[in-house]
Design goal:
Shape: globular
Helix content: 25-40%
Oligomer: single chain
Strand order of the largest sheet: 5-6-10-8-9
Number of helices: 18
Mean pLDDT: 95
Number of strands: 19
Largest sheet: 5 strands, antiparallel
Structural class: alpha+beta
Length: 472
């Protein structure tokens, strides 16, 4: 939608500020910086004002005024997004939802928790644990990312294999629409056939159709036992066969992550307080986690899986965590994969998914394609083998010019996404579209689906004030 928005006048900014109070209307450039920069420093935003409403009513009034004045709004949660979807680039008003941070209800009997959009994922998980339940979304940024942001981007995470992605956890939501009306769909019902499933229009829409202000989330019984292991394997194909073996032995495979040796070495070199998980190096590693409602017997199940994997020639070596601290150390190695790559120079990153069975072939063909395009590049694929979501990162050749390498971003995208397309995959698995992948959608999305998306946008946001320029 190419709609021209009015730049807010001084008088209009004053009207916005009165809704939240001067304390929560930020115009000082230094105070705005945390809202306008993101963790990878790929994007820098700009805005005349950051508004921090403290209630749904204030959000409603802000959006109604923005709609009346034709002023664009960019909603933001914890500012942990990786595709630029949470930043204003054309002097839009930035609407930070991190003051909407109440946990309205925890209902253990109904296995639900009702959180406002600004509640961090970590707080939601803690509140669930306090009533012996689990909120099963798990992301490394849980201390910062928010429920509203997770739903708006349909975030994935390391436990999606067992529990699903953000959309899987939402029973109901509350949304402020583009005209300021509030859609109250906060129900706890597993069964509700009273028409269209409206909530899923807004989950994954990145704030372009409405602003999620609260949600009822599904809880599950808290596991009584968790076991974690690291295994060294020769190839992604061996890792895939080990995954199938594990899933044939138990329904309790919670996470199944794949990592390259090159990534392990980067973590050992640049990550603090990290140890090599196995005594000898291996080309690939698998981090596997099982969970169970039974308090005993799970370790034996994991050991049997590893023993059989070794007998079949899939595993060269493995170790099971003997303590919670050791399990956390295993996970820390995996979680640092993204962070330490900045020390390797320029890194062109992809968040893609292919059918699980196609992961080994995808990695092999993508590695060959990027190496042919730029000799000497260092592919570093890792991620969620269990659900087919691979973070396919390509690091610059050693000693190469970083700026010159990053200037080939579109070229690298083209060859990687061609391989993704060959296997029927997606160019955005869990990070969203934002601005980074917006212009790629017409090349990969079904034209009819894209037309329907544009129709929904025009219908729900006719003036185009909600997060303009993102997704579409």
């Amino acid at each position: 939608m190419n709609i021209q928005h009015r730049q807010p006048s001084t008088d209009l900014l004053s009207r916005f500020a009165k809704i939240v109070g001067d304390k929560y209307a930020i115009t000082d450039p230094q105070a705005q910086l945390p809202y306008l920069t993101e963790m990878r420093d790929l994007y820098r935003g700009r805005t005349p004002m950051v508004l921090r409403p403290g209630s749904v009513e204030e959000v409603s009034r802000i959006v109604a005024l923005a709609n009346e004045a034709g002023t664009a709004i960019v909603p933001q949660g914890g500012n942990t997004g990786l595709v630029g979807g949470q930043l204003p680039f054309h002097d839009e008003i930035l609407l930070s939802l991190n003051r909407l941070d109440r946990i309205r209800e925890v209902d253990a009997a109904s296995n639900s928790i009702t959180c406002e959009a600004g509640v961090t994922l970590g707080r939601a998980r803690e509140a669930a644990a306090a009533v012996d339940r689990l909120y099963p979304q798990l992301l490394p940024s849980e201390g910062t990312c928010t429920i509203g942001g997770n739903l708006s981007t349909n975030a994935g995470g390391t436990a999606a294999l067992a529990y699903g992605i953000a959309r899987s956890h939402a029973l109901g939501i509350e949304v402020v629409l583009a005209d300021g009306r509030v859609l109250n769909n906060l129900n706890k019902l597993k069964k509700d056939n009273t028409g269209y499933d409206l909530k899923n229009l807004f989950i994954g829409a990145e704030g372009t159709l409405g602003i999620i202000t609260a949600a009822v989330l599904r809880l599950v019984p808290r596991p009584r036992a968790i076991e974690t292991a690291v295994a060294g394997v020769a190839s992604p194909q061996a890792a895939l066969e080990l995954l199938m073996l594990a899933q044939n032995r138990t329904t309790g495979v919670t996470s199944f992550e794949i990592m390259t040796r090159a990534g392990i070495e980067a973590v050992l070199r640049y990550g603090a307080n990290c140890r090599d998980p196995l005594s000898e190096p291996h080309p690939w590693y698998v981090l596997i986690e099982l969970s169970s409602q039974a308090s005993t017997g799970l370790r034996e199940v994991l050991e049997e899986i590893l023993a059989e994997g070794h007998a079949q020639g899939l595993i060269a070596d493995a170790t099971v965590a003997d303590s919670l601290e050791q399990a956390k150390a295993f996970w820390r190695v995996r979680e640092l994969f993204g962070e330490v790559q900045r020390h390797l120079g320029g890194s062109i990153k992809h968040d893609v998914s292919v059918p699980v069975a196609a992961v080994p072939a995808f990695i092999a063909e993508a590695n060959a394609a990027v190496t042919e395009l730029i000799p000497g590049v260092r592919p570093l694929p890792f991620g969620h083998l269990g659900d087919g979501n691979i973070h396919y990162n390509v690091n610059q050749p050693e000693g190469a010019d970083k700026a010159a390498f990053l200037a080939r971003w579109d070229d690298v995208n083209a060859v990687v996404f061609a391989v993704v397309s060959k296997f029927g995959g997606s160019i955005s698995a869990e990070h969203g579209v934002g601005i980074m992948k917006r212009d790629l959608l017409p090349r990969v999305k079904d034209p009819v689906a894209l037309d329907l998306m544009r129709t929904l946008k025009r219908t729900l946001d006719p003036k185009g004030i909600l997060n303009p320029g993102k997704v579409l």
